[in-house]
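Input structure tokens:
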């Protein structure tokens, strides 16, 4: 017979889906939040530049709590899925960011 605790240890696909689905939502919330809170356009531009040029750093900042929470609640497969999803999003950010930077310089 299967133990119910073994069945509830999370899944890799739910972690990947969570990481990939939440990323655009967080980007939008942060972008609109900064525009609403800060009226000085120079500050908004500097924050937007750091947001665009260091997406991996920002992604680590919000993914780390999810990862630690799932590890703490004994769902290691979901935690691994979050790391894999973060890697996928980081690769997409790097490739799209590189294309944009090349296009801007040209």
């Amino acid at each position: 017979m299967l133990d119910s605790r073994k069945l509830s240890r999370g899944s890799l696909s739910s972690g990947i889906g969570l990481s990939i689905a939440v990323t655009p939502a967080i980007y939008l919330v942060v972008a609109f939040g900064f525009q609403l809170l800060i009226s000085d356009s120079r500050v908004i531009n500097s924050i937007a530049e750091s947001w665009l040029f260091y997406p991996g750093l920002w992604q680590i900042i919000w993914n780390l709590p999810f990862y630690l929470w799932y590890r703490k609640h004994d769902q290691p497969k979901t935690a691994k899925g979050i790391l894999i999803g973060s890697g996928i999003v980081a690769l997409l950010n790097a490739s799209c960011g590189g294309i944009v930077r090349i296009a801007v310089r040209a």
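The first helix runs from residue 4 to 7. The CA atoms of residues 55 and 94 lie 8 Å apart.
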